[in-house]
Design brief:
This protein is α/β, with parallel strands linked by helices. Helix content is 29%, strand content 25%. The strands form six sheets. Strands 7-6-8-9-10-11-12-19-18 form a nine-stranded mixed β-sheet, sandwiched between helices. A four-stranded antiparallel β-sheet has the order 13-14-17-16. A three-stranded parallel β-sheet has the order 2-1-3.
Length: 410
């Protein structure tokens, strides 16, 4: 493996090929922190994300990725978590950093995932979402560390995924609701494959429509389907789908070893063990604002019932979740405001039957839609690009200047 000092950071901008998972595990076992990123990021986005994180190495192709793999370390104990990035409500990218963990905490981190999800040597994990996302990478890592097998068929394709299920007989997979909708639509045409090999199907990333959730429960083996609620910073809850059918709208109770609290204003806090602590890399002020003793918050709002089940009332302010991908309006707005023909702009989400939400932009200025589409194509990854545009004389705002997003064109 390429020689890197403990605590170094390696930006992974290579496609998630066969060596990707082994490279991540090799780095973590050496106390080096991979920064998994979407390889589709534009040069503008890469500079913006990586500037504060100051990576020691940037990997952009399969050969450089393979050079990071160590045959011994690739299944050794990870000494921390990958440094995933989150933009938060400020639109400024932040690296979620565990630091190098002492051995007892590193073992506890692996054991917590194994005990909750039951990872074992006979598992076959089917990777459906891109491995640079935190949830699919976490499930793949847990499977590999338990001695199981990980199958990465490539970019999502319902037909390819169906054939992979038939051929590989997977036992687990993580999906977002959009994946389920596309699979179900495909299965309506070609028939449902044999799903009896599955023992775990976990979904998260966006609200799951009730009809999709019910079909999920009906199609897969009993007591195999789960939802969980969490963020890049950490995990809050887990819930079997059967519990959700009895308590519509819940995202479950606190994961084992964790405790949930909700302030009077609805802000959700989660107390976590020492191995699940984090900082925002290089940003002590934002770190301090996120923590209260052993509890952290990401600013989401919700409520707890008498039995400890959590119900979400809102995600981070104005966050758009499209196809399971978090899109932060401020980041898109800041990009659009760099165009000389944009005087004012508001970016927001509207419901979409396939994607959960669709990114929209309301623009004040002289720029034409074609110009703006070309502009964001150069500067933003596909999930962040507005899919619908409105042009207004002025944005609706409160007396204090806050955009009235509910009054924007739907």
């Amino acid at each position: 493996m390429t020689a890197l000092a403990e605590g170094s950071r390696v930006a992974l901008l290579a496609p998630a090929g066969p060596a990707y998972l082994d490279a991540v595990l090799s780095l973590l076992a050496a106390g080096v922190f991979p920064i998994p990123l979407d390889p589709r990021l534009t040069a503008y986005e890469r500079a913006r994300v990586l500037g504060p994180l100051r990576p020691d190495l940037v990997v952009e192709d399969d050969a450089a990725l393979a050079a990071l793999v160590d045959p011994v370390l690739r299944r050794a104990l990870p000494r921390g978590r990958p440094m995933h990035c989150t933009s938060g409500t400020t639109g400024t990218p932040k690296g979620v950093f565990s630091g190098v963990l002492p051995e007892d905490r590193a073992r506890a981190l692996v054991a917590e995932e194994r005990d909750l999800w039951g990872f074992a040597a006979d598992d076959v994990n089917l990777v459906v979402s891109p491995l640079y996302h935190s949830a699919p990478l976490r499930f793949a890592m847990g499977t590999a560390l338990a001695g199981g097998r990980v199958v990465v068929p490539g970019p999502f394709d319902a037909a390819l995924l169906t054939e992979t299920i038939r051929r590989e007989r997977p036992t687990s997979m993580f999906v977002v609701p959009t994946h389920l909708q596309r699979l179900f639509d495909h299965w309506d045409e070609v028939g449902v494959p044999d799903l009896s090999s599955f023992r775990l199907v976990a979904h998260a990333g966006a609200p799951c429509p009730a009809a999709v959730k019910r079909r999920l429960v009906d199609l897969f083996p009993d007591r195999t389907t789960w939802e969980f609620y969490g963020s890049t910073e950490g995990q809050f809850t887990a819930c079997r789908s059967e519990e959700q059918l009895d308590r519509p709208g819940t995202v479950g109770r606190a994961r084992p070893g964790r405790r949930l609290e909700v302030d009077d204003d609805g802000t959700i806090w989660c107390a976590v063990p020492e191995h699940a602590r984090f900082t925002y890399y290089g940003d002590p002020e934002k770190t301090a604002a996120a923590w209260r003793g052993d509890r952290f918050t990401v600013g989401d709002l919700g409520r707890l019932d008498d039995d400890g089940y959590l119900y979400l009332d809102g995600r981070r302010e104005d966050l758009v979740i499209s196809g399971g991908v978090n899109v932060y309006p401020l980041e898109v707005e800041q990009t659009l405001l760099e165009h000389p023909g944009v005087a004012d702009v508001a970016v927001y989400g509207v419901p979409d039957p396939q994607w959960g939400q669709r990114v929209c932009a309301a623009v004040v200025g002289t720029a034409a839609e074609a110009e703006l589409r070309a502009f964001v194509r150069e500067r933003l990854a596909p999930p962040k690009r507005p899919k619908a545009w409105s042009f207004l004389e002025e944005l609706p705002r409160t007396l204090t200047g806050k955009v009235l997003r509910g009054d924007l064109p739907r």
